[in-house]
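We read letters as residues; the fold follows as tokens. A sample entry reads:
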Amino acid sequence: MSRLIAFIIGSGPNIGQHTSAALKAKGYQVALGSRKPVVEQVKKDGYFPVALDITRPETIKEAFASVNKELGPPSVVIFNGSVFSAPPIPDDPLSTPLEKFTEMSAVALSVFAAAQEAVAAFRAESNKDALKTFIITGNPTPWQPFWKTSFFSGVLHKTDEWRMTELLAHAYAKEKFRFYFASLVNAETGGVLDPLSEFWTSGPQHAKVYTDLATWPDQADWDYRFTLKAEQWEKARG
């Protein structure tokens, strides 16, 4: 039987913390990637710490090399990182310095780099019999009009990731590699949560959904939208 190994990129106290615990409870060895991991605490909690920076795509390849060496190639990869930076002049998105915009735009490149490394890991002999899943933490902004300039950068790179997920889910379906853009949505509208503050305590719901997606044998909808009840939105709506 294959060893169960998962790599979570973006291991904050909300989604990352709850999802890592849920996967660990399912028997996964879990690597946690963050910019400045508290190494001893992460190890004490039973995880493998990995340093990376999602605004520097070259660090993603290095991070996977570390996970592959210490734990083995992961069969579950979750990209839970994002960058939001409000423009220095409110309601003037083009006041964002080009250097800052370039840094924020690099997040989509890091997703691409992570997907490349994940596919290589999925093809490893040790994952021959494993369910292989790549999940991106999404949101409704790619398909819903959204005018808040404070989220300008995040809207753009999430839109890139949304389209990328669609392409990858179809391109690798023949190898049974599952790709998901998983978004918590408003149960009534399917759009952005209202109040948005509910997102910051939604770790348990994300953990439930991500664990389900990682363990289901078949590809579900690549654009997977779910509610605070941890139910797929289309089903919950009916």
About this structure: Helices lie at 15-25, 39-44, 58-70, 98-122, 152-171, 203-215, 233-237. The longest strand covers residues 177-184.
